[in-house]
Each structure stands twice: as C-alpha cells, then as structure tokens.
C-alpha cells in the first residue's frame, strides 16, 4: 500500500494541480536520506504518469512561452504511505520530504510518514511488467510468454505480488482478486491461471474499480480529491475482514483469504 489505484489517483492529482504551472526550484528535507535533487532547468513544468506501482514526474525545460524539448523524468515508488500534496508555499504538510516550488507561491510536496518511498532520476523499472489497467493486452502477453518460468511454480497468492508480472497488484488487491474469482490462493500459479480465466481479467477490472471508488484509504494514504472511503470499504470484501482467514505467506506478507481454502489444499 499504496498500490496501482493509489498511484494512478496520485498521478491524476499532480496533473490537475500542475497544469499551466511553472516551477523554479526543488528542495529535499535534510531529515530524509533520499537522493538530493536539483532542478535540471532554471524554469520547468511538471506532468505525471503512473504505471503499476511506479510514478514518473516529467520535468520539461520551460522558456517564457515555449518548451524547448528538454525532458527529465524523476521516478517515485511510494513505499507504505507516500503521496503528494499541493499547498501554498510555507504551508507544506508535516513529513514533506521533496518539494517543488512554483513561481507564484505554491508547492508540490512528496509526503511520506513512513519514509519507505524512494525517488531517482530514471524511467520505468526494467523488472516490472506492463500495467494491467493501461496495457491489458501487453500484461496478458507478458504472462503467457513467461508462464513456464519458475515464478509461476509458486502459489498464486504469492505470485500475484510479483511485480515482474503483476505490476501494481499489492496486498489488498490480491486478496480481493482471489476472493472474487473464487480462487484457491495455495494452488500453483501456473495451474490457477490456466484453469481460472477470471484471474487475469480481474487484475484489470478490480484495480479499475478501485480507481473509480477513490482508492484504498488504508493506513496513511488518503484520496487526493477528498473522496470519502465509504464506497471503497463496502467494495472490499476480503482484505482486513475478520471473518476471513489469514496467514503469513512465503514473501513475508499477510495473506487474507476465504476460510474454505486450506493451506494443504493444492
């Protein structure tokens, strides 16, 4: 957490607040051990793109009226609680760790209470698969072409967290995907994918639904547009539900699943 839906919504928010804005400098909170970042241009604009669990800030060199074609990309992963806030300069939120200042008195801040998030000058991670909501055909093709790999020898409950194939699927999404497709989480991933066609389809539809409902407002993440969490909480049937079973899986994460499935059932 945050997962695909939350990165997508954060990217939407960044694009909304930075439209037509010109930025002049960047400052890192010295308390954060993250990469020092200097503005690559005297003036620049910011756009955002998300893909799975990664978000890019696209910084474009800006003259008075024109773009000159220069572009740099700063990649973020959000860890457990990362998000962006847009405020007047001087009113930045507590735990703001990387700040982008406009030329008219506003600040776009990367905020992270837990400090697990990271940033660096980079583009998309080479070890992450296609986003199942933005490139569903590529997502399916990538899995089908690699289904013989050892990664799919693991239980499907664990395989769903493998970002090389299921980019953006995290703990709450895998629980809902498994539950809503009536899938045994302990079945070998390769067999589950072959036998249950809903699995891959729901890797697209459920994150899309989560986006439309405003994302998972769990722990420190809040919807950047002020959407209340009521509808999302009603949509989430398995994750965090006390009537469900739970176990610590082979990745060290807590897996929530339907009580009808037993760990010795393969």
Question: Can you give keywords for this protein?
Answer:
elongated, 10 strands, N-terminal domain of MutM-like DNA repair proteins, 266 residues, 4-stranded antiparallel sheet, Helicase, Ruva Protein, domain 3, 7 helices, alpha+beta
Mean pLDDT, nearest integer? 94
CATH class identity of the largest domain? Mainly Alpha
CATH-defined fold name of the largest domain: Helicase, Ruva Protein, domain 3
Identify the quaternary structure here. single chain
Q: Structural class, from helix and strand content?
A: alpha+beta
Biggest sheet layout: 4 strands, antiparallel
Number of H/I helices: 7
What is the overall shape?
elongated
The sequence of SSEs as H and E is HEEEEEEEEHHHHHHEE
Poorly predicted ranges: none
The count of domains is: 2
The number of E-state strands comes to: 10
Strand order of the largest sheet: 1-6-7-5
């Amino acid at each position: 957490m945050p997962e695909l839906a939350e990165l997508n919504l954060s990217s939407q928010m960044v694009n909304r607040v930075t439209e037509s804005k010109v930025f002049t400098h960047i400052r890192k909170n010295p308390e954060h051990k993250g990469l020092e970042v200097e503005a690559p241009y005297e003036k620049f604009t910011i756009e955002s793109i998300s893909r799975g669990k990664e978000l890019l800030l696209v910084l474009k060199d800006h003259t008075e009226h024109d773009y000159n074609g220069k572009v740099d990309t700063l990649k973020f992963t959000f860890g457990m609680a990362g998000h962006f806030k847009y405020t007047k300069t001087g009113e930045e939120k507590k735990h703001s760790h990387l700040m982008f200042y406009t030329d008219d008195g506003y600040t776009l801040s990367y905020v992270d209470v837990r400090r697990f998030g990271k940033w660096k000058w980079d583009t998309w991670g080479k070890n992450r698969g296609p986003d199942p909501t933005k490139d569903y055909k590529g997502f399916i093709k990538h899995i089908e072409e690699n289904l013989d790999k050892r990664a799919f020898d693991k239980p499907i409950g664990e395989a769903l967290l493998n970002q090389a194939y299921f980019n953006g699927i995290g703990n709450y999404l895998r629980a809902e995907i498994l539950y809503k497709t009536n899938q045994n989480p302990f079945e070998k991933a390769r067999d589950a994918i072959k036998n249950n066609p809903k699995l891959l389809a729901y890797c697209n539809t459920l994150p899309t639904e989560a986006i439309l409902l405003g994302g998972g407002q769990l722990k420190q993440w809040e919807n950047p547009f002020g959407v209340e969490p009521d509808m999302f909480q009603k949509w989430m049937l398995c994750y965090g539900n006390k009537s469900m079973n739970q176990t610590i899986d082979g990745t060290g994460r807590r897996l929530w699943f339907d009580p009808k499935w037993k760990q010795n059932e393969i």
